[in-house]
Amino acid sequence: MRINKGVFYFFLLFPFFKSDMITEVYKLQWLDRLYDVWKLIAIGIMTCLWIKNKKIDVKLIVLLIQILSTVFSTIINGNIKNCVPYISIQLSVVYIGILICLVIANNDMEYFLRAAYVLLASYCICNLISVIIFAPIGGMYHPDGMRVITKNRYLLGSKNYQVLFIFPFIGLSSIYDIYCFKNIRRVTIILHILSIIPLVVTEAVTAIIGVTMYYIFYFLMSKSPRSARYLNGYIMILVNLVIFVFVIILDGQRYFSSFFMTLFHKNLQSQRAYIWQKYIEAAFNKLYMGYGYVSYSERRVSVGVVHAHNQYLDIIYQSGLIGIGIFILLIGYSLKCVKGDKIKYIIICSIMVWLIMFQSEYYYSNPGFYIFVFLCFNWNELEERWKE
Known about the structure:
about 400 residues, about 70% helix, globular, 17 helices
């Protein structure tokens, strides 16, 4: 019996997008295990296909080197027991890279994009329903009040973590439409609007800013292709470096904290600033190699806060300047590889906005971001193969 390729890629992609609510809710442990088993099966299938295919992306090698740098740092800091949980977390992003390699090699981009469209659209619409129903009482699930920080969760998680599903849907659905229909369809625009509503209702500040910037940047690049020259990898890395130094290191957020308080009711001065300072102090003690992978419970004891609320600062904390250097290399090389027309703009805008959102959030696992990283290649060549 011949398996439909769209269904096949849906099967492979599904277990890598799991809401943190499933992990947090005790009564859903059976579902959490089901996701893990499903993921292992998908990884096994992809491993066999990958070995048979005998092709590897340079970006995947760079990603593996970054992961190994954190593993090495974990070992030299005497936390060998933490290597296994760290590797199990990173398997998701590694196999997202392998999945994209298989898709490109087999010229199956249409099937992959269709599977991603259906999967993520379903998640986003169901999340909208959960927010509409449960927002008046604060969420579908309220974690134990004994925790240091409690978050009210909906189907796709709490506030800014919903963007781990919503933002990949916005980008991948747009790529699907342009790749298969040459333009973004009306139904896709409607689904974009519906998927964004939960971010507004739950006041997910970082996600709202990120999505808004994405549409602004994409509009500018589409209407003025010349602007794309100024949104290359070097400029993105430089801008993010300047933001990081000014906002995080030099405490520049104090200059616009009142704006955020007025507009979003967020007191950056007392929240993010305290967290960033704690991690800056810790990171400077082991600046070159970092501390390796440290669990949330161990961080709460040693640093006082479970994560840095800044992706770059957290990478520096884990693997030092070496780790962040490899991450920058990965982003720079990826953006240099992407070629095409409108699809190129979507990928560049998506990665750029993720890099900006990383300034105020930390995502311990982010398959959606790495999908765009591995989609950085010559789309013109793929389209020629597709038309043959």
